[in-house]
Amino acid sequence: MEKKNRPNKFGSFTSRTSETTSSPRSPYSPLKVNQRSESDTLPTLEEDELHDHDIGQVSEDIDRFTDALSAVDDKSDPPEVPDIVETFSRILDSKIAKYNSGESTTRFFKMTEEDLLFIEAVRRISKLTNAFGEFPSSSTTTSSHNRTSMVLQRAMTFMEDEFRALLEDSWSSDSSSTNLKPYSSFNNKQEGSDRCAIPEIESTGDHDEFPAYPPEVLTKMNRIAAAMVSAGYETECCQVYTIARRNAFQEQLKRLEYEKLNIEDVQRMQWEPLEGEVARWIRLVKYCSAVLFPGERSLAESVFSDSPSLSKSIFSNIARAVAIQLLDFAEAVAMTKRSAEKLFKFLDMHETLRDLIPAISESHCSEEWEKEMASEISATLDRIGAAAMNIFCDLENSIRNDVAKTPVPGGAIHPLTRYVMNYLKYACEYKDTLEQIFQQNSKSEGEENLQSDQATSSPFSAQLLVVMDLLDENLEAKSKLYKDISLRNIFLMNNGRYILQKVKGSPEIHKGMGDNWCRRRSTVVRQYHKNYQRETCGRLLQCLSLEGGLLVNGKVCKQVVKERFKNFGVTFDEIHKAQSTWVVSDEQLVSELRVSITGLVIPAYRSFLGRFKQHLDNGRQAEKYIKYQPEDIETLIEGLFEGNPLSMGRRR
Amino acid sequence: MPATDNQGSFLNRISIRRNQVVSMDGGHEQELEDLDLFQKHVADRFSDLFSQPPQQPSPDSSAESPAPDALLSISWLRKLLDAFLCCEAEFKAVLVMGRDPTQFSKPPLDRLIPDLLDRSVKALDICNAITHGVELVRNWQKLAQIAVFALQQQPIGEGQVRRAKKALNTMLTSMTLDDKESGHGKSTERTWSFGRRGGGAASASVNKDRTAGGHFRAFSLSFAKSWSAKQQIQAMSSNLVAPRVGEPTGLALPVYIMSTVLVFVMWALVAAVPCQERTGLATHFPVPRQSGWAQAVLGLQEKIGEEWKKKEKKGIAGVLDEMQRMEKAGLWLVEFAEAFQFPMESSKADEVAAQVAELADVCRRMEEGLVPLQLQVREVFHRIVRSRAEVLDVLDQVGKLTSPVPY
């Protein structure tokens, strides 16, 4: 940025009498400046004449005159204007001309003392001009007023250009290229200012710091802004600043690969590419909440540190334009055709947007802007929320419409169960957000759960229960597809167990469904187990019953014993053959089932065997009718529910 | 959002009334009556807008300020948006409230509703472009304000005159650039092009090369590059077909009326407010001459169309009443500033004061009107979004979710 060194550019201010004692009023000390280099001068002004003046003395005189002017009560009677006014005007003119003749882009290389002097001088001339302005137009001061206001205008034009150059150059040299090297939190380096450390943000890669201006540039901008505002050039100053910063903000968005999409374009996009845009948007909004907005705010605060109200309105202007742009995208996405897969991205957007609100209210912006933005954001939040809620409620219809014609082989967990439960589990990771959304949009149509003892705390929990009940109904209907009652119960057990485990495995769903619900479900699942047990073991135990002609008048009927043993073997084979192909994927459930069969069948078989084996004629007969020893049964039971149609053959 | 609440209660009232009536004497007559009422209200509202005396601003006699709601003035636009919001609420009541959803899946609605939804999406993009355009006008207003502030000081000296000239030059340059560039496909790179030094003086600036690059890139991101207001309006109006006379039209008529109102309002906004790519904007679109409700719309269309033709012919920057006045006074004052010598001739003083007063009046109206206008455009935006959602809800009920569970 620095092109060449021109140490003497403020020569005209310092005068040749460098030993002058400074006036107590002037805020600067006398300067030790090298000899003026003649090459610097402009031929347009009679420099030599000017340099016969001591700037300190001139300033002091000007201040005195300004005070005197302001003190005049009768504004129709202006005092005589001393020559010093013209001299001072010329000094400034010459200085501005010299600045303007420079070739570098930022002509205030460093905020040297000379530059500070210039700014002081500009303040002085603006004060003087104001004092002149209080006198009527026909008075003797008019031409002096004209003179000083012209100088002031030149100075302001120069400052405006300077301000713009600083705003644009110091920024764009950092951010326009790919190798962004952000200055570390500029606001910490600034003198006496330790406000608002920029919060960290994750997942924005290497863009996590606000690309700030170097501290010395900041100081310069602050001085220029203060001078312009105090001279009444506030509007110009704000315009330059706002436009430059708006552009810079857009640059930032561009760097984050944010591309503005029209609402119509968004409607036409496939979900897959749009999902990518949404992800980008989420990153961007997070970055805005955490870095860009706070950074932009504290930048405005440091540049316009003298006028907090100005910095607020400037920041709100910049932020508003960006925020609306971001909101429009969210609106556009929320308007797209809804589908189940979009739910989680919508909820992500909802949460991201919600977190944007504190970035705005923390900023202590003017109330008007806060109100407008808050209502804009909440309108968009409502829309995304409503869309998310509708998607979630669509699950109801999807379940209702899922009518299967063929049962799942082996009574295994139905894909619908898996889908719904995983969807719910994932959705419940957003439980707080969903609760909030449901609360706001809670349906008036009376779809509430009416079971009094299940009275739920929230509309979302109610919706969860509705979904669960529907799923139950649906599974109940699907279970009817199994002709085998044992298998039907296995199916119900499998699915019921899966649902329970999913609910218990997720604290959020668990909370949503409540303990009572879980207890009730466990009971129901146990009932399925009992039904199964009764059905399967019942058939076996029937063979081992003492009823049914086994004892005739207290005598054992051998024929019946033979039949019973034979039937037992056949029945068991049937059960084993069938149930080995059944599927129980939950290990614990498998072992529970096996234990419960073993526990019922084995003791009964053992005692039957012990009591009636002797009634078979001999060893040969025993071998013929007693196919299995209790130990064999036990082993075979271990092979049930493997879901393996070959297990029988292999074991043989 | 206050708008939401109002609307909600309004619709509720209507729905209650409708339900009561329907339950008393069958729906059909009531429906016809509602339709008549809707047409009548559209006609009334637009006649109101039309009957405002379309007074031309005359800066030469600016002691007499033009009517506050002259055609295409900010306050007129606000009335137009008000009228739109009212018509829209009523339309929705006719279309959605108490309606048997199956009607949406039968002719003619099955064909008309998708068109309606498509048009409303296009209207949303236009609303956004307008919001952006109003923002631009607000910036011009600030520049004009600088000039007013400078020239209201007494006495007027060279400093004040130069200050005013600089600001006005920047304003005028930006106005022309905006208008010119938006016609040449460069629109995305335009808009926030406020010259470094204002107007032609920019070349004097130290780094003129960057001036162009730095300022012209500007707000390019706020709109997709290919978007064109002109084409949007064209697309919105191209499939506007009036239901054939003599046919039992049923709901086709209100849908057609509302669509025409929507297209008209968007068209008027695009004409009035700076907007991406609007050169060659159509000056009219078909409106049935014989219908009572359409008379005022037609009249307005003609007037605005004339204004637009004038604009394109004369090369002035805007059709918005205040912008025209601003441009005119601005040009006059710049000319004055070019020739200015201190001290000002007293003969000139009155004339300058009059122009400054004119500019001040425009600034005041903009100050009062632009932010509310912007908010109102947002309100229209939100309303359209909401209505679209409501119509989709009805459609949902018809097609009651055939989407299977994607397991």
From TrEMBL, chain A:
Transmembrane segments: none
Domain called Exocyst complex subunit Exo70 C-terminal: residue spans: 280-638
Signal peptide residue numbers: none
Gene Ontology molecular function, alphabetical: phosphatidylinositol-4,5-bisphosphate binding
Region entry Disordered, spans: 1-56
Gene Ontology terms describing biological process: exocytosis; protein transport
InterPro entries found in the cross-reference section: Cullin_repeat-like_dom_sf, Exo70, Exo70_C
Record keywords: Exocytosis, Protein transport, Transport
Compositionally biased region (Polar residues): 32-42
Positions with biased composition (Low complexity): 12-30
Domain of life: Eukaryota
Pfam families listed in its UniProt record: Exo70_C, Exo70_N
Record-level GO cellular component terms: exocyst
Role this protein plays: Component of the exocyst complex.
Membership in a protein family: Belongs to the EXO70 family.
This protein's name: Exocyst subunit Exo70 family protein
Species annotation: Escallonia herrerae
Species lineage: Eukaryota, Viridiplantae, Streptophyta, Embryophyta, Tracheophyta
UniProtKB/TrEMBL annotation, chain B:
Region of interest called Disordered, as start-end residue ranges on this chain: 178-198
Biased composition (Basic and acidic residues): 178-189
Matching InterPro entries: ROH1-like
Coiled coil: none
Keywords in alphabetical order: Membrane, Transmembrane, Transmembrane helix
The keyword Coiled coil belongs to this UniProt entry's keyword annotation: no
Keyword Transmembrane helix among UniProt keywords: yes
Protein name as annotated: Protein BYPASS-related protein
Organism: Escallonia herrerae
